[in-house]
Amino acid sequence: FPVENIRNFCIIAHVDHGKSTLADRLLEITGTIPKGNNQQVLDKLPVERERGITVKAQTASLIYRYNDQDYLLNLIDTPGHVDFHYEVSRSLAACQGVILLVDANQGVQAQTVANFYLAFEAELTIIPVLNKIDLKNAQVEVVSDQIHNLFDLDKKDILKISAKQGTGVEEVLKAVIERIPCPKFDKTKPLRAFVFDSWYDRFKGVVAHFAICDGIIKEGDRILCNSTKKNYEVTEIGIMYPDQVSTGVLFAGQVGYAMMNMKNTDEAKIGDTFYHENQTVKPLPGFKEAIPMVFAGMFPMEHSEFLQLKSAIEKLTLNDRSVQVRMDSSPVLGQGYRLGFLGLLHMEVFNQRLEQEFDASVIITAPNIAFKVKIKGEKNIKQYGSEELLVLNPCLMPSIDIITEYQEPMVNGTIISPAEYINSITELCLNHRGRLKDQSYIDDTRVLFKVLFPLSEILVDFFDKLKSLSSGYASFDYEDAGFEITDLVKVDFTLNGREVEELTLICHVSRARDMAKRVCERLKATIPRQQFVIAVQGKVNQKVIAREDIKAYRKDVTAKCYGGDITRKMKLLKSQAEGKKKLRMIGNIEIPKDAFIKILQK
Ligand code: GTP
After folding, report:
1. What is the pLDDT of residues 197-212, one digit of tens each?
2. Shortest-distance atom of ligand 1 to CA 52
3. Index of the ligand 1 atom closest to the CA of residue 162
4. What's the pLDDT at 105?
5. Is 480 exposed, middle or buried (0-12, 13-18, 19+ CB in 10 A)?
6. CB under 8 Å to 399, separation ≥6 — which residues?
7. Low-confidence stretches of the chain (pLDDT beneath 70)
8. Which pLDDT score, from 0 to 100, does residue 582 have?
9. How many angstroms is it from 163 CA to the middle of ligand 1?
10. Alpha carbon separation from 77 to 56, 111, 202 (Å, rounded)
11. Most buried of the four, 3, 79, 529, 586, by CB within 10 Å?
């Protein structure tokens, strides 16, 4: 294929607006998959099929005949959920244009806006497409107006389709060819292959997805990795059609996969450049690092499984670069990791993928977010290495005596909703410490709010509340907005006066009492009764702000053994001693590991 006949494009949209369905239709029309066999072909991961969402961008190459010429169309299907925006920006780097898909029934939603701006800032050609026009309630005119008003796109350029029934889908392919420019890459220049995705395949080892920016790459070539300077022989190369089909060669402008006998998962970093041995080329700019929003500890179910977990995490993070990994350890859970995620859904999906794709069984601790503090005193600053500290783990927060300032992470939220819910949404935002920055109508009946929130306020139940008060009609999206000075406290928990450091949490002053109460109640519900009363307390600066009591309970494992049989008694004592190994002792209080895990888990 000459470069002029290649198009690289993404489909971007709000969750459930029909991206994967449209991708299926495009694959069918171009004969890439047989008709009728159309169950979201590009959602390949088990977690995607179970949850019915896309979490990983996927590539497929299509061949389409138009005006007596064959075109190679490289399609990237991207996720819609806010937690996976990183995947979208990554995919856009390999494209010259996007299909912006909008549900004609729901209209423009918060993630439509966010995704539009990602494409707009990357200066890509945008093809607006209205989907689901087969629905009775489709509001083609209204939604076209929204698209025009919000994004300044011409109404006559908007395509109208039903991805489900196939109506108008052929027009989409034509628009891709006519409106999206071909990649501006040069076959005659030295090779530059950009890694925009990579993953670990249990049978084939590391597989890299390349976007070939210049030159030609063939099987048997020796290529060099820019960041490690290690060199490899290309053992197989090809396109995704829609599964791996070996072609032996890839040219500038194409995207495809490559295998190079890489065993170590750290060698095909997303954002890296590969080139031919003995050539010097300028590497392509890599990706911006993802900024993790929530952190949680991840530990093996049994201490002995640590190495297994380590290898599983290494392989999965090869495929998901947005996860931040650091070592961690806990008195009860042993050696493990502290991982940073883009959101709670991202964390759940990562956990599920570890279990499904790598057979790892893990314990995840309750998630927390990062805070910043400033400290005083030359000696302290020297000890901590800096005046401003990022606190990822609440129990590592410095003593309040030396803290001069607290900062919490903020996000810019976008809410789109029918106008009748304005009052209740405003109230909800205020209750979550939100500050309204802007409010505007995007058509006669819908309102767009811009609200600045503390991240901690929107992570857990904000979206559920928003959905329920708007009968499901409001949508929400957010992006990082840096840190802001605030008033935080550290809440410690004690059992009969002994501190349980794993439970320490940091929160806004106004939330301390509620949080402390909730944790105390949970402790009461999970810790089994013992032979004495246990006082469970939540404290701020040594002052008790919440308390629960766990009543006493007498237990005597040998009581049943009347007199004589000493071997039976020994046996029972031995098994109890073994059980003790699975306990975390806090003073003289025994907490079975599984109860502890229940408290720590989210
Ligand atoms: P995520 O991957 O989670 O972001 O979703 P998606 O955008 O890929 O949406 P998907 O293709 O999974 O479609 C969501 C739902 O809309 C499915 O139940 C589809 O059957 C339905 N759907 C998609 N296109 C159409 C259409 O043209 N008409 C109708 N009536 N339903 C459609």
Report:
1. 887 777 888 888 888 8
2. 3
3. 27
4. 93
5. middle
6. none
7. 36-44, 52-57, 265, 286-288, 554-584, 593-594, 596-597, 600-602
8. 59
9. 8
10. 8, 15, 24
11. 79
Q: How far apart are CA 363 and CA 305, in angstroms?
A: 12
Question: What was the pLDDT predicted at 481?
Answer: 92
Query: What global pTM score does this model have?
Result: 0.78
Residues in the chain: 602
Tell me how far CA of residue 489 lies from CA of 398, 405, 454, 492, 540, in angstroms.
12, 11, 15, 10, 7
Residue type, 441: Y
Residue bearing the CA closest to ligand 1, atom 16: 18
Where does ligand 1 bind, in terms of residues with CB under 6 Å? 13, 15-21, 53-54, 79-80, 131-132, 134-135, 162-164
- Interface pTM, i.e. ipTM: 0.96
The reply to whether omega before 242 is within 30° of 0 (cis) is yes
189 is in an annotated binding site: no
Separation of CA 132 and ligand 1 centre (Å): 8
* pLDDT tens sequence across 65-89: 999 999 999 888 777 777 777 777 7
Residue 11 assigned ligand-binding role: no
Determine whether the annotation assigns residue 13 to a binding site: yes
Would you tell me the crossing angle of helices 110-121 and 85-92 to the nearest 10 degrees? 30
DSSP three-state, residue 364: strand
- Of the residues 21, 129, 159, which should be mutated to test ligand 1's pocket, given the most ligand atoms within 8 Å of the CB? 21
Structure tokens belonging to residue 435: 């500050």
User: Are residues 61 and 255 in contact, defined by beta-carbon separation less than 8 angstroms?
Assistant: yes
How far, in Å, CA of 470 to CA of 474, rounded?
Answer: 6
Q: What is the pLDDT of residue 200?
A: 79
Look at residue 568 in the predicted model and tell me its pLDDT.
65
Q: Using alpha carbons, select from 424, 450, 429, 427 the residue that is nearest to residue 439.
A: 450
22 C-alpha to ligand 1 centroid (Å): 8
Burial 496-507 (b: 16+ CB within 10 A, else e): eeebbebbbbbb
**Whole-number Å distance between alpha carbons of 470 and 398:** 42
131 is in an annotated binding site: yes
Please report how many Cα atoms fall inside a 13 Å half-sphere around the Cα of residue 161, on the Cβ side: 29
Q: What is the pLDDT, as a whole number, of residue 265?
A: 64
Nearest to 62 by CA among 47, 72, 52: 72
pLDDT reported for residue 553: 72
Contact between 448 and 442 under an 8 Å Cβ cutoff? The reply is yes
What is the rounded (10 degree) CA torsion for 188, 189, 195, 199?
A: 40
Which residue's CA is the nearest one to ligand 1's atom 29? 132
Q: Ligand 1 mean position to 25 CA, how many Å?
A: 12
